[in-house]
Amino acid sequence: MPLLNVGFRAAWRTLSPACYTTLAALAESRGDSALLLKSTSTDIYENLALEDWLHEYVQSRDRHVLLLWRNCPTVVIGRHQNPWQECNLKLMRDQGIQLSRRRSGGGTVYHDLGNINLTFFTSKKKYDRRGNLELVISALKRIRPQLNVLATDRYDLLLNGVFKISGTASKIGRTSAYHHCTLLCNSNRHVLSSVLHSPHQGLKTNATPSIPATVKNLCDEDPTLTCDLLMDAIAMEYARQHSCQSKIMLVDPKDNLLLPGIAKFTQELKSWDWIYGRTPKFSISHYFSVDHNLPGAEVELNMSITHGRIESCNIKLFSDWLPSMMCNQLASDLIGNKFCPTETLILASAYLRVCSQDNELCTKWNALCEQVMAIM
Ligand SMILES: Nc1ncnc2c1ncn2[C@@H]1O[C@H](COP(=O)(O)OC(=O)CCCC[C@@H]2CCSS2)[C@@H](O)[C@H]1O
Questions:
Q1: Cβ of 169 less than 6 Å from ligand 1
Q2: pLDDT in tens, 325-372
Q3: Cα 316 to ligand 1 centroid, rounded to whole Å
Q4: Region of poorest pLDDT, from 4-13, 119-128, 330-339
Q5: Least crowded by CB within 10 Å, which of 47, 70, 77, 194?
Q6: Domain ranges, residue 330
Q7: Distance (Å, whole) CA 234 – CA 228
């Protein structure tokens, strides 16, 4: 197969199904020591799976790869974080914003199509976060010399010395590594700050906390900037510094022929067990009023949650506005369930059938269950 002397994209496009080859083989057959890839997907799980796949299969050789990608609205938590501590899950459900857990450590960020993600794959030896961030700064300076951007000691990029425009995380394997970072061009800052705000106050955990910062979009500094412009500038700079072709190869993370086995990676990243079940053990203590028109309708809820499942639960009423027997039963039935509104709704509905003759009781019961589900 005459792959050695043709561009990546051309080679890929000219392959007939019969001689379809994997991305790893294509990378191997090309002489370049560096590759520039862009994902055609805007699905966070597919894109994180693509990172996993590249880390596993292409990075086994001493090769430099840069992957550019963007996502539809999503919150991305770090590997050892607690989503209930980091974000407003109810608001996210209501607004159709996805939640994902990445494999790298660090804090929580918000992505939408106005945010660019860059993943620098290298061998463990060549892993160089500062070098990568300097490359991004050089690319920015080349297209807009007046921009004042610097990298901090914790590998954030700051605009004008104050505003965060990029956050960093990384994963280091046995022989290979990757460093990935964001770049805010024109994200929705209102959504960003509202979803990265947890309604929980009495949550106790030793999960990694995020370090909140004041963010800014590059677009607010220079309205002529676009994500495409920034991605092209970074790709050019990468090609310049790594002496490789500046042509970007488009990769579809759903392409199981090019990326054998990727579907399994995607499935795992989408699973409840990975996203929620990996949360370090935590406890919540929540005090709320179920109905402000009902004097004394206050509730104290205490729960401990392990691997995302309710391990202990106590629902305390401060008056007899609801039969305490019902609450005790709910508390004991919640044990072992996922700390999630869907499972709780199923339990709550079963009770509703029992008390369906009594309208007032049903209303109070619904109000209580809705409050419990709202904190999940
Ligand atoms: N998109 C984006 N870019 C930069 N900063 C952000 C963003 N979203 C939120 N933030 C701010 O960073 C802090 C969290 O900072 P903190 O330092 O705790 O965490 C990070 O920076 C993690 C970066 C992960 C990058 C990966 C690259 C590909 S997949 S995600 C948050 O509270 C906001 O104030």
A1: yes
A2: 888 989 999 999 999 999 999 988 887 777 777 888 888 888 899 999
A3: 38
A4: 4-13
A5: 194
A6: 282-374
A7: 10
